[in-house]
Amino acid sequence: MSGQEQDSLDKVALKGRIKAWALELGFANAGVAGIDLSDAEQGLADWLAAGFHGEMDYMARHGMKRARPAELVPGTLSVISLRMNYWSESDRGIAEAALADGERAYISRYALGRDYHKVLRKRLQQLADRIAADIGPFGHRVFVDSAPVLEVELATRAGLGWRGKHTLTLTREAGSLFFLGELYTDLDLPPDEPVSEHCGQCTRCIDICPTQAIVAPYKLDARRCISYLTIELRGAIPVEFRPMIGNRVYGCDDCQLVCPWNRFARVTEEKDFSVRNGLDSASLVELFAWTREEFETRMAGSAIHRIGYECWLRNLAVGLGNALAVAPSSTGILAALRTRQDDASELVREHVGWALAQHVAQA
């Protein structure tokens, strides 16, 4: 056997060990992608040129670096892409029931437990440490939705799934209810083969979107997306979208809940993703009553914490306004809104005023 053949076998064997270690650390799957993403650059450029990134200025600021791993981390030769399940409910109907109850606060299921950034980042570093213990020091950098990374593109190229029409990664065996993380490395590992797509003619995710943010298959206008409006946007939520938001106060799962492949979503074994603070069943009124101190204490360690108390109240005010629109006689909702009519935050006051006007409109 030539030295080149032996080297190739060694790399394949190392990749196999990495995948085994990933499973031991709680990841659902792992794959390896190459770093030539040049054929993804035009799509990214067109998306940015259309302004679909909204106020996420960092998307434009980083530009094509997202599609050039070796520019982001010099020396990168391979990207190890990993996924970790977060779905914590045995029955999808639980989430659907919460969404249908206008007086309950609907929070995207990925945010019900501990902040995934912290969980995945720690596990990815543990994986890097396992690799280093096996082969010695090597160049690497860990990413979890925290830098200019085309994570869905990399996951697709690593064979973890395909890009669904809602733009999320989909797998036949587990749907899309999982997180992605990446390990950029200077190891020259053999890339995995992409899997075939299986969306077919289905357009359920496009049809169900409350704000029609999926403007075409595989194309999302973030400016219309409820996840963007309730998480990324820092100012006032455009009035035209407020009635469409319903009771979704942090993120939106509609496109995933309706996806046929999520019938196969795996319930996570990760205890850090278990529900905290009763967020899977809390009422809008209950959460709206939290003081700033309660928000800071209860949301510490949660992904929700990063939007801040003002945006939290802003989102809840919209939810309460929508609840009033369908239940104008609810004195509890009216009373809750009136407690913040004179809130110190102009942002909160404006959204409370809008919410109260929904009662007047229905009276």
Task: Outline the structure in words.
- The chain has 363 residues and is α+β, with helices and mostly antiparallel strands.
- Among the domains are: 161 residues, no CATH class; 81 residues, no CATH class.
- The chain contains 16 helices and 10 strands.
- The strands form 4 sheets. A 4-stranded antiparallel beta sheet has the order 1-2-7-4, with helices on both faces.
- α14 packs parallel to α16.
- 42% of the residues are buried.
- The model has no long low-confidence stretch (mean pLDDT 94).
Question: Which tags fit this structure?
Answer:
two-stranded parallel ribbon; elongated; alpha+beta; 363 residues; 4-stranded antiparallel β-sheet; single chain
Could you name the ranges where pLDDT drops below 50 across 5 or more consecutive residues? none
Largest sheet: 4 strands, antiparallel
Cα end-to-end separation:
84 Å
- The helix/strand series, from N terminus to C terminus, equals HEHHHEHEHEHEEEHEEHHEHHHHHH
Gyration radius, rounded = 22 Å
Mean pLDDT: 94
What is the overall number of helices? 16
What structural class should be given to the helix and strand makeup?
A: alpha+beta
The side-by-side strand order for the widest beta sheet comes to: 1-2-7-4
Strand content is 5-15%
Number of strands: 10
Oligomer: single chain
Overall body shape: elongated
User: What share of residues is helical?
Assistant: 40-55%
Enzyme class: oxidoreductase
Binding site for [4Fe-4S] cluster 2: 209, 225, 252, 255
Binding site for cob(II)alamin: 66, 145, 180, 227, 252-253
EC number: 1.17.99.6
